[in-house]
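Before going further, learn to read the protein records used in this course. The integers have meaning only within a learned vocabulary of local backbone shapes. The record below shows the convention in full.
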Amino acid sequence: MTKQSPIKVVIADTAFLIRKGLKSLIKENVECEYISEVVDAKSLQLALKKEVPDVLIVDHCCDDCFSLKVIKTIKQITRL
């Protein structure tokens, strides 16, 4: 049996407590690997240039930062 690679996760949310809570949960799960967290669309684009995650957790309700348009653009660029 071969060991599976961990699921790489990036968190994109403006709320500090949400990011920290999600980060804690991800780090507790041995099947997941926390990659990074970002607070705005520009930081997200920079983070995704460094490494494309398997899972991207996004607060889509924040139109100023992570609007659906931004998410669609990122999805096209990274093929998430």
Remarks:
- The longest helix spans residues 16-28.
